[in-house]
Amino acid sequence: MAAPAHALAPLGALLLLAVSPALRAQGAPGTAPPAAEAALPEVVVEGQHQGPRMWTVRRGDHVLWILGTVNPLPKKMVWQPDAVREVLAQSQEVVPAWPSYGIGANPFTALRVFIQWRRMQKPPDRLPLKDTLPPALYARVTALEARYDPHDSRLEELRPMLAAERLMNRVLDASGLALHNEVQATVLTLARERGVRVRQDKLKIDDPVNVLKDVGATPLSAEIACLDAVVTRLESDLGPMQARARAWALGDVETLRELPHADDKTACIAAVSTSERVRALIARAQDDWLTVVEDSLARNRGTLAVQSMDRLLGEHGALATLEARGYTVEGP
Question: What is the DSSP string of 164-224?
Answer without folding.
Answer: HHHHHHHHHHHTTEE-S-HHHHHHHHHHHHTTPEE---EEE-S-HHHHHHHHHT--HHHHH
